[in-house]
Design a protein that fits this description.
The complex is a heterodimer of chains A (about 70) and B (about 775). With about 70 residues, chain A is of the alpha+beta class. Chain A has one domain: Ubiquitin-like (UB roll) (Roll), CATH 3.10.20. Chain A is built from two helices and five strands; from the N terminus they run E-E-E-E-E-H-H. A three-stranded mixed sheet of chain A has the order 1-5-4, with no helix packed on it. A two-stranded antiparallel ribbon of chain A has the order 2-3. The radius of gyration of chain A is 13 Å and the shape is elongated. The two termini of chain A are about 20 Å apart. Chain B is elongated, with a radius of gyration of 36 Å. Chain B contains 35 helices and 20 strands. Chain B folds into six domains: about 90 residues, Fumarate Reductase Iron-sulfur Protein, Chain B, domain 2, CATH 1.10.1060.10; about 150 residues, FAD/NAD(P)-binding domain (3-Layer(bba) Sandwich); about 80 residues, no CATH class; about 130 residues; about 110 residues, no CATH class; about 70 residues. The chains are: A alpha+beta (about 70), B alpha/beta (about 775). At the A-B interface, strand 2, strand 4 and helix 2 of A face helix 20, strand 16, strand 17, strand 19 and strand 20 of B. Strand 4 of chain A pairs antiparallel with strand 20 of chain B, so a sheet runs across the interface.
């Protein structure tokens, strides 16, 4: 199941080494005993994923706290 | 924590104890709730409250002799709440429909002798328990002397209506004159017998025997009696009712063959442990009914009810924003924490509560029964750590910081230059070293010149973060490192600058002889240029005692004497010495719950308009961080030209600076004191605007994290570039946290624009 983090296409950042624009792709994120598949902007060449600040400090933080209290 | 420990702990919190009015009432009417409802004009609710505990509320509500009034805490503040009048006003309002829940019938039958109040109550209680009850009366009507009361006191129609319930519940009445010879047949025919001593039949059969206290048993053969007069020969309706009720319970226990006395200590009037602070309650005279004996009007009753103090304790909540935040009280918190530990599947909802307590111990000082939230929370933390259920984010930063202090960049144990032994060792601790390394150097030099030339030095952490986090393994490990270094130094006396360190040494290494730096300085001549910024010190300052000095009056006195020597006029805060408050750092509160630590600080800083004077470096930094101009005592003993005239204005030391200061302190000490020039690597310069630095501190991101992340991005080429401004964005996950840094190249380092982090790990399944 893909958890929607509400991320749109990213137009600001591109992968420096591949010189490629990032595209939304499926990525697995893990923490403690939790594992989710989400869509994050990734480099279509090397696969490097971007976690935008608002996601890191928003939804991701919420989920981290929930998992810590499990 | 097991059930037994929980119960013992819960007992210390008295908030759920009955208020004085309720515990003085033999029937334990919930007077406090009733009066509150009357005050709000909620008559139906008030009626229902009376109905819960009063048998025949329409009768007792009119004739109760209200012993609660004398025990009311308002007695000395305008007179006790006139509960008797309020009850009358309430039962004069229309009675709401109150559902009677039918009870399954029991097979045993009970005999009740007498028609007066105690017998009626005993019969009612037994019927409500499901027994078959036969009442023996020589009179035509139930109620006895109640019928003789004037109509203004108890209208006849009310009496009649109130007694209907007995018949509804199936009471059998036998009209019969009873005498002593009839007791044996009654005992034969019934499971238990009640004799109402307030009725002629009952009194005759009792033959002047007196029932026992609590059980109201006349002997041990199933005969019980109540309805006795008081020592003045008066019958009290509320006591008659209580005795009838208590005897009914004994009759039930007798038929069930269980103990008659077990668990009945608090039946009837009893002293309460509830404490209610009335120091700030203004006297307010009772409301007199305008129409005299006709009683209160509705408005008068409400006005009288509003005088009620609504007794409760909550003393600890008044002084602790943390305890107040969770909207309960320690007894409830203890239960929540106990339940939290018992959860196998599901969310541990009390983790944050457990980790937020500053462990400062003020609640224990304030509580009339010495409830200690600190003991409760520390135990719970240890349990979480042991079961591997402690949320990693709660204390990780503090534990890593402790690990840093106990590693090569800071760790140091040296005798004084050119000395082979140390009589004493100065132990400044991490926080002072991080906050103001120059003061450590100056203090160490001062001690060698003024206390003992052979004073050595140890730079290390006292393990307080591990202790506070409940991590016993890490505490033990750090303490044994400390003990080992102390032994290497020849087991000297330790001079400690920080009261948290003192607490830790006394707690875990009691064989080590420790003394506070302030007690040492108090015995020395202070430096000649001490109190140079004395211009600032001419103004009085409010002295903040650290919470870990709570039980160290000698240390607190020494600080006050030093301040007096320096000419700093001290204002005592309302909460000082053994009642001092935490700065929000204690117990790692700020780590686990920064928002509540902020509330704690807001409360502390609002206590005085004066600048504060602290003698714990962490307190100083916390108070200053909350916007309170705060100086450290060493600021006046060793004035620093760089600080300027007002040390209270010195900016707060950030987290990165604190760590870098500690590393620099060691290098400077080796260089200046032991003439060893340590090797220093050249680090790239980070250019960070103050507002960005504030964000980094708030997110607990250190310059070392930033340097590592940039290095990773630059070495691997794994970085992104903004199409808008050309900035780079690199990420790195050294251990449990992924750091992101937005930066650009500068001439001798990097410009840092932003940094954030998360704990979730990104796994590319098909990169």
């Amino acid at each position: 199941m893909i958890t929607n983090l509400g991320i749109g296409e990213n137009t600001e950042w591109k992968c420096f080494s591949c010189d490629a624009l990032l595209k939304l792709d499926k990525v697995r994120i893990d923490y403690m005993n939790g594992s989710f598949t989400v869509e994050l902007p990734c480099c279509p060449e090397c696969g490097m994923a971007l976690v935008p600040e608002e996601i890191a400090l928003g939804k991701m933080l919420e989920v981290e706290k929930l998992l810590e209290d499990k | 924590m097991d059930q037994k420990t929980l119960r013992q702990m819960e007992k210390h919190c008295i908030q759920e104890e009955a208020p004085a009015c309720r515990s003085a009432c033999p029937l334990h009417v919930d007077v406090r709730t009733f009066v509150l409802q009357v005050g709000k004009g909620k008559w139906n609710d008030a009626w229902k409250t009376l109905n819960k505990t009063l048998p025949f509320p329409g009768i007792l509500g009119r004739i109760c002799d209200h012993p609660c009034e004398d025990s009311c805490l308002r007695s000395t503040l305008g007179g006790g709440i006139r509960m008797g009048e309020l009850e009358k006003t309430c039962v004069n309002q229309p009675k709401p429909r109150i559902r009677v829940i039918p009870i399954p019938k029991k097979s045993e039958s009970m005999a009740v002798v007498g028609e007066s109040l105690s017998s009626l109550v005993a019969a009612l209680e037994l019927l409500r328990k499901g027994y078959d009850v036969t009442l023996f009366s020589s009179l035509d009507k139930l109620g006895g002397s109640l019928w003789a009361l004037p109509d203004e006191t108890l209208p006849k129609d009310v009496l009649e209506k109130e007694l209907v319930i007995l018949h509804t519940l199936g009471l059998k009445v036998e009209k019969k004159k009873m005498g002593k010879g009839l007791l044996a047949p009654l005992q034969e025919a019934f499971s238990a017998v009640y004799l109402g001593l307030d009725s002629p039949n009952g009194a005759r059969m009792a033959q002047e025997k007196k029932p026992l206290d609590k059980t109201f048993a006349l002997g041990n053969d199933g005969v019980f009696a109540g309805g006795t007069c008081d020592e003045h020969g008066h019958l009290s309706p509320v006591h008659q009712s209580f005795q009838g009720r208590a005897a009914a319970l004994s009759m039930e226990r007798f038929t069930q063959k269980v103990s008659l006395v077990e668990g009945r200590r608090d039946e009837g009037p009893h002293p309460t442990r509830l404490f209610t602070n009335i120091e700030e309650i203004e006297p307010l005279p009772g409301v007199l009914p305008v129409h005299g004996e006709k009683g209160y009007t509705i408005d008068e009753a409400r006005a009288e009810a509003k005088r009620c103090i609504q007794c409760q304790c909550l003393e600890c909540l008044k002084v602790c924003p943390y305890l107040d935040y969770y909207k309960g009280y320690p007894k409830r918190y203890a239960r929540e924490i106990y339940n939290n530990a018992a959860i196998v599947m599901g969310n541990h909802t009390a983790n944050l509560m457990v980790n937020t307590c500053s462990l400062c111990g003020l609640c224990r000082e304030i509580c009339p029964e010495n409830f200690s939230m600190a003991d409760l929370c520390l135990d719970a933390r240890r349990d979480l750590v042991q079961r591997d259920k402690m949320p990693p984010s709660a204390h990780e930063f503090a534990l890593q910081d402790m690990a840093f202090s106990n590693s090569e960049p800071f760790l140091l144990a040296r005798h004084a230059p050119n000395r082979e032994t140390s009589r004493c060792v100065f132990f400044p601790g991490c926080q002072l070293s991080g906050s103001n390394p120059e003061h450590v150097i100056q203090t160490y030099s001062f001690l060698r010149n003024n206390w003992a030339e052979d004073t050595g030095l140890m730079l290390q952490c006292c393990a307080a973060p591990a202790h506070w986090s409940g991590n016993e393994a890490k505490t033990k490990e750090a303490m044994s490192l400390l003990e080992k270094n102390w032994q290497k130094m020849g087991e000297p006396r330790m001079i400690l600058a920080c009261s948290s360190c003192l607490d830790m040494f006394r707690r875990y290494l009691p064989r080590i002889d420790v003394i506070s730096l302030w007690q040492v300085m108090d015995r020395c001549e202070l430096p000649v240029d001490a109190a140079k910024p004395v211009d600032a010190a001419k103004n009085p300052m409010a002295l903040h005692d650290p919470c870990t000095s709570r039980h160290d009056p000698q240390l607190q006195e020494a600080v006050r004497r030093i301040a007096a020597t320096l000419g700093i006029p001290i204002q005592e805060l309302e909460f000082s010495r053994e009642k001092t408050e935490c700065c929000g750092f204690g117990g790692l509160m700020e780590n686990a719950n920064p928002a509540l630590a902020q509330k704690q600080l807001e409360r502390r800083t609002a206590e005085s308009d004066l600048d504060y004077l602290a003698y714990c470096a962490m307190c100083r930094e916390s108070l200053k961080g909350a916007g309170k101009p705060t100086a450290h005592l060493l600021d006046f003993i060793f004035p620093q030209a760089t600080v300027g005239a007002d040390p209270a204005a010195r900016v707060k030391t950030g987290l990165s600076d604190s760590r870098e200061n500690r590393a620099r302190l060691k290098r400077d000490l080796l260089d200046q004191v032991w003439n060893e020039t340590p090797e220093t690597g050249t680090e790239s310069m980070l250019h960070i605007l103050p507002e960005v630095q504030a964000t980094l501190d708030q997110r607990r991101i250190l310059h070392s994290d930033i340097r590592e992340t940039i290095a990773h991005g630059e070495e691997t080429g794994h970085k992104m570039q903004s199409q808008v401004n050309g900035h780079f964005l690199a990420s790195h996950r050294p251990l449990m946290v992924t750091f992101w840094v937005e930066y650009s190249l500068a001439e001798n380092g990097y410009h840092i624009y932003n940094s954030y982090c998360h704990r979730m790990q990104i796994i590319r399944e098909n990169p």
